[in-house]
Write a structure and sequence with these properties.
Layout (H helix, E strand, L loop, with lengths): L2 E4 L3 E7 L14 E7 L1 H11 L4 E9 L2 H9 L3 E12 L1 E7 L5 E6 L8 H8 L7 E4 L6 H10 L3 E4 L9 H4 L4 E5 H8 L8 H11 L4 E5 L5 E4 L4 E4 L12 H14 L4 H15 L12 H7 L1
Parallel strand pairs: 1-4, 1-8, 2-6, 4-5, 8-9, 9-10, 10-11
Antiparallel strand pairs: 2-3, 6-7, 11-12, 12-13
Helix pairs in contact: 1-8, 3-4, 6-7, 8-9, 9-10
This protein binds alpha-D-ribofuranose (RIB).
Length: 297
């Protein structure tokens, strides 16, 4: 099986701050670090470090060589990444607090320049049984997911960042990995006092053919499909940076599933991988290798 990860590539500018900035405030950052990131790039790195053959597609502009180097050093093929002139590479401004939490401002740049022609040409190289992994940091994901479904590819969707324009994409997805806030937005319900089992159940009612992974932060995660439900606890560690924890979870969960493991095993694999990622700074550089995760298991 080949995995096509079609998604964003970002330069993450991480400002270490004493607290998150508030309206009207000017705040001095303690330091600045620059990392490779983007939900698409991070998930490609996670899928590849977990052991899969991964092809990344997307678009970059200026100053993006180190992003392509990060992908290639993880073993990801970058032939389908468009290199565009006169446009900025996608980037983020991330505030990182001392306890490892973050706030992110995202600038799409080249990530928002995906064309249907690029999608059609890329998909010519994939066929039935191959997988497509997508998030919501590039344009044209509805068209992309529809074309992949028509080819009978397995579509895995992480609807992040969530907005109403991507609701149709849910119907093209076989696997949906989302957090409680995204679930509440999709369900159009106030789910603040609801149990994870209730939320996962509501998602399955609306999407009976999909397999759902609901991530719950420090409360772990829950998997649900037509036949089974299983819970995975979060693994407690001292976090220094939670950026890309969700992307690591997504990549390792999907790699477990794509190699034929049970959802229980894949959830455990993913939880251990993200527990390692949060103990290290940065997005893509924090993602562990398959062997590191297996040792922890
Ligand atoms: O999920 C983490 C990622 O979200 C960061 O690497 C940043 O680029 C944003 O896209």
């Amino acid at each position: 099986m080949k995995v096509l990860s079609f998604g964003s590539l970002n330069i993450d500018y991480v400002y270490n701050v004493p607290h998150f900035i508030v309206r009207g405030e000017t705040l001095a950052a303690k330091s600045l670090d620059t990392y490779s990131g983007g939900k698409g790039l991070n998930q490609s790195v996670a899928l590849a470090r977990a052991g899969l053959k991964v092809f990344h597609a997307g678009a970059v502009g200026e100053g993006a060589k180190f992003l392509l180097d990060e992908l290639e050093s993880a073993g990801v093929n970058t032939d389908f990444v468009a290199k565009l002139d006169n446009i900025r590479t996608g980037h983020t401004i991330i505030q990182r607090s001392d306890d490892g939490d973050n706030c992110i401002i995202l600038y799409g740049g080249a990530n928002q320049s995906i064309t249907r022609e690029q999608i059609n040409k890329t998909l010519e190289n994939f066929s039935s049984g191959d997988a497509l992994v997508i998030q919501n940091e590039i344009n044209e994901i509805e068209y992309l997911s529809k074309c992949a479904k028509e080819k009978n590819m397995i579509v895995a969707f992480n609807p992040s960042p969530m907005d109403s324009s991507i609701i149709p994409v849910f119907n093209n997805a076989d696997y949906i990995l989302l957090n409680e806030i995204e679930a509440g937005q999709f369900l159009n319900q106030d789910i603040t006092s609801k149990t994870p089992e209730y939320i996962a159940g509501e998602l399955c009612k609306k999407l009976p053919d999909s397999k759902i992974v609901l991530t719950l932060g420090v409360n772990g995660s829950i998997y649900k499909d037509k036949n089974i439900t299983c819970r995975q606890d979060a693994i407690r560690v001292k976090a220094v940076d939670t950026t890309a924890a969700g992307d690591t979870f997504t990549g390792f969960f999907l790699s477990g599933i794509f190699e034929g493991r049970s959802p229980e095993w894949a959830m455990k694999f993913a939880a251990n991988a993200s527990a390692i990622a949060v103990t290290r700074p940065g997005a893509a550089p924090s993602i562990p290798s398959r062997n590191e995760v297996l040792e922890k298991l």
